[in-house]
Amino acid sequence: MELTGRSWLGGTRAATSGRSFRAVNPATGEALAPDFHSASGADVERACRAAHDASGAFGLSAPATRASFLRAIAERLEGARDAIVARAMEESGLPRNRLHSELGRTTGQLQLFADVAAEGSWVDARIDTAQPDRKPMPRPDVRSMRRPLGPVAVFGASNFPLAFSVAGGDTASALAAGNPVVVKAHPAHPATSEIAAGAIAEAAEACGLPAGVFALLFDDGFAVGEALVRHPLIRAVGFTGSRAGGEALARLAASRPQPIPVFAEMGSVNPVLVLPGALRERSDALAEGLHASFTMGTGQFCTNPGFVLVPAGPDGDAFAQRLAERTRATPGGTMLTPRIASAYAAGQERLRRLDAQLLAEGAEAESAAAGRAALWQVDAAAAVVKSALAEEVFGPSTLLVRYGSDRELERLLDAIEGQLTATVLAAPGELAQHAAVLRLLEGKAGRVVFDQFPTGVEVCPAMVHGGPVPATSDGRTTSVGTRAIERFTRLAAFQNAPASVLPPELQDANPYGVSRLVNGRPSSDPIGSG
Amino acid sequence: MELTGRSWLGGTRAATSGRSFRAVNPATGEALAPDFHSASGADVERACRAAHDASGAFGLSAPATRASFLRAIAERLEGARDAIVARAMEESGLPRNRLHSELGRTTGQLQLFADVAAEGSWVDARIDTAQPDRKPMPRPDVRSMRRPLGPVAVFGASNFPLAFSVAGGDTASALAAGNPVVVKAHPAHPATSEIAAGAIAEAAEACGLPAGVFALLFDDGFAVGEALVRHPLIRAVGFTGSRAGGEALARLAASRPQPIPVFAEMGSVNPVLVLPGALRERSDALAEGLHASFTMGTGQFCTNPGFVLVPAGPDGDAFAQRLAERTRATPGGTMLTPRIASAYAAGQERLRRLDAQLLAEGAEAESAAAGRAALWQVDAAAAVVKSALAEEVFGPSTLLVRYGSDRELERLLDAIEGQLTATVLAAPGELAQHAAVLRLLEGKAGRVVFDQFPTGVEVCPAMVHGGPVPATSDGRTTSVGTRAIERFTRLAAFQNAPASVLPPELQDANPYGVSRLVNGRPSSDPIGSG
Predict the structure, then answer these.
(1) Average pLDDT over chain A, rounded to whole?
(2) Fewer CB within 10 Å of terminal CB in chain A, N or C?
(3) In a 3-state reduction of DSSP, which class is residue B64?
(4) What is the ipTM of this complex?
(5) Nearest 10 degrees: Cα torsion B212, B214, B218, B223
(6) pLDDT tens figures, B288-325
(7) At a CB cut-off of 8 Å and minimum separation 6, what does B82 contact?
(8) Which of B420, B415, B487 has its CA nearest to residue B447?
(9) Cβ-based contacts of B448 with chain A (< 8 Å)
(10) Rounded CA separation B125/B493 (Å)
């Protein structure tokens, strides 16, 4: 596919008149051709208008149509695999194997949402039939289901240029539910974004869908993203990125004349609680696992464990020692962008200013965006007082917090903010002795992990990749797993409606055969005439 | 039950030191004994702390326990029926029959949520079992479900002193899901509130639940409500009332260091679209139905039809004429409070200033809070220009908007804000000729009613009493119907967790026998060892 550097506006392409920018290879610092052109206000308007115009037909499209669309996107991404991986490597600095597996995850997500859309029960169709003779008042016929919201703005994330970007999870779940999508491309990987956009646009055309179901807007500043979130035709926002970015979008959306939901996944420090028995039993294995988890992918995961509660005393000292050895042996890595590398360096400086003790550093990398592993340590007493120690440092760094008692743990965990994950490493039977601590942890995190590590988010029906504010802007939902199809929807009821105006899922005949709640009981059967 | 006028703080009672106020009988203007005492900041703190302390045990209580609790509340309310109805009549001016049926609705809601809690499938339990041999990576065991949020602040509504107040829908759904509730009593019906609080507190004690699961705070100002929404231990807010009030609470909640969800139901004008064929076929019956709907209960329903689109021309004129006759014959009513009566008068004045034509008025009432029925009319062209014509007037008033064409309808409906309901009155087969208009209406409302009237909200599994902003602050949810149990929850996942720490709904044995999604398939069976 030929790269044009122009935004995709739902059927048409933007002019090249806007300010231009280039991606930068974070390993070499080299600017990569071609030029990409920032979208104009008129481009945003055109993309949103096309999305709005497409939303009626797309929102009413058959589940099978949406499933075919998602599968067609996956096929085309698969077809462009080598080009995508090659470009993503240049633009993100991520290694080839990682990107191959991330592409597999991306197409897997699309196929999973295709299955969910085709199966159809996610709409939560409910039918309460009329009882005209009920006393004292007749009961009306009431039917309801989840319906798409309309155009959704999705912000590509820097750290997953495929799985959380143009054709990533938010796009897949929004399309699966019947919402057109307008993506704001992350400026760190514009070419990767354009290739993915091409796959989506081609798939839409092949499936006979209006071109407005998808648009891609380029910008290396904030103007396009802001205009998108403010645009009256945009009905919801999906975002994965920094806390500052997510909170800014949430504020912007809340200040609209008609506020819209923002689903921002903003990361967290993902506390890991190491219990004494676990250390006595398998300290080395845990050090190995934790080290792998916090340095994996140069530490650039939202679920990176950055705050590790380790017992004071000799067992904890030995564990810290073992982690320090592994940290010193860690090769230097390339971060996603020079800016992220600078922010990482600033985060290290912040830990230093907060009087954390640097236990070990890894090797330096020869890179324009070098990220060097680091292991820090503080006392629990310090962490209770200095809440900034529990702020995320995005990169291959972690902080050991040495605790003396469960009471100290409780004070620490009581003060900690909402988290995507919390992890507990325990010996068999040990959890029962720490019930209060465990309950505190559970209340703070979207996912609690036992004797495994938080990095790696399985894409499956039960997954919750979310968590209380400020890990996300809305702890009632998830950005990974099949439940994500529910986030870009609203409830709509029809009372005493003729069959002709009902969505198929609510018609007596149940033509899609979805599971429904009929007069309070689950059923996939048609409602009989008898 | 003896009335004390003191707030209930989850086990203890507030002092009588606070500023005192009395309810006012809106029919007579008479102040009603006893004095009620506004809660202090310390009272708010104590109520929230008790709720927080109760939330762990209550959140983990068995479904059967929560169901018994809700049924025990319903029994006690039923036991106090005569006292409640007598007090609510004095405090609200609502007629006896209406309050008897509202109490039935209130106990019915509690029983319905008891059934939902006991059945248990609402938690959406999902289990994906481990696949240790999967390549290239093992699949972890992941389990998740909806969990209660913690203490919920509920604001009693003035217009349903029973069904949307202390023991109303928000309280029932929050308790059913396992959340302690702190109610801010509406100052218009404090004695009714205290009797209902007594029923809840007694039921909690009888069921062996911690007293902190429920508290009731009195205040005739805004300080207690604000302190409650700002309190760090409060996790969500339920509100039914004015747009100004709901938006203020939503802003307050969004400005917290950790924002919390606000489910505010703020009312709307509930547009009614009268199509030409319907008028040709049964103009008189429609006029009768519409008149009954907009004047019922002195027009004090969130679903009151206040914006009626009627064709220009002779059929529409005759319809308006018939409505005017009925309006003139409408007896005067007593509104809920003198303040609401003043606001209604101001709303009438606003319609006058917007150059709406007053077609008819009903009789005046002899009352300290009189509400007189009114029928207004404007041209569609005026309504397109003056959006304030589509703002709610709370009371027995409606506005006929005379339209000439579908294009005019589309412009009107395109400009209209989110609505709780939209109603279409059509002749058989007529809907098909107005598909675009119909689609616009559907996009604007939580519930679309066909050939019935919007007042009267059936409490059933399929009901949606919600709608896009600004009808509510969150169109993804409902305040009536069984789905309301989901609003005060979040998603929580457990990865690789030992059975001992899993909630029963996620344990292999499935002790409550709830329907779950196991490896993507619905099942109520235990997960076998085989």
Answers:
(1) 96
(2) C
(3) helix
(4) 0.97
(5) 70
(6) 999 999 999 999 999 999 999 999 999 999 999 999 99
(7) none
(8) B420
(9) 492-495, 497
(10) 10
Interface check for A456 against chain B (CB to CB < 8 A): the answer is: yes
> Tokens in use for A143?
């039917």
Dig out the tokens for A55 from the structure: 């939303």
Could you tell me the sign of the dihedral formed by the alpha carbons of B444, B449, B455, B461, in that order?
A: negative
Interface of B with A in 24-53 (CB under 8 A): none
* H helices present in B275-337, as ranges: 276-295, 314-328
Single-letter residue type at B12: T
The rounded distance, in Å, linking the Cα atoms of B259 and B15 is 31
Instruction: Report, as residue numbers or ranges, the catalytic residues of B.
Output: 265, 302
User: Could you give the 3-state DSSP secondary structure of residue B334?
Assistant: strand
> Residues 6 or more apart from A185 whose CB is under 8 A from it?
A156, A165, A166, A193, A194, A197, A216, A217, A218, A219
Q: How far apart are CA B24 and CA B31, in angstroms?
A: 4
Whole-angstrom Cα distance, residue A60 to residue A178?
Answer: 7
d(CA B323, CA A210): 45
Chain-centre distance of CA B99, in angstroms?
Answer: 17
Q: CA torsion sign, B257 to B260 to B266 to B270?
A: positive
- Does the reported pTM lie above 0.95? yes
Helix (H) or strand (E) holding A184: strand A181-184
Measure A334 CA to nearest chain B CA, in Å: 24
Nearest Cα to Cα of residue B357 among B382, B337, B336: B382
Q: Chain A residues with CB inside 8 Å of B431's CB?
A: 498, 500-501
- The residues, any chain, with a CB within 8 Å of residue B109's CB and separated by 6 or more, are B163, B168, B169, B172, B459
E strands, B103-247, in order: 126-128, 142-148, 152-155, 181-184, 214-217, 236-240
Do A504 and B473 meet the contact criterion of CB atoms below 8 Å apart? Answer: no
Q: What is the pLDDT of residues A190-245, one digit of tens each?
A: 999 999 999 999 999 999 999 999 999 999 999 999 999 999 999 999 999 999 99
Q: For residues A128 and A520, give the distance between their C-alpha atoms in angstroms, rounded to a whole number.
A: 7
pLDDT at position A16 is 87
% chain B with pLDDT above 90: 96
A366 carries an active-site annotation: no
**Whether A463 contacts B493, CB under 8 Å:** yes
When pLDDT is cut at 50, 70 and 90, the band that residue B530 belongs to is very low
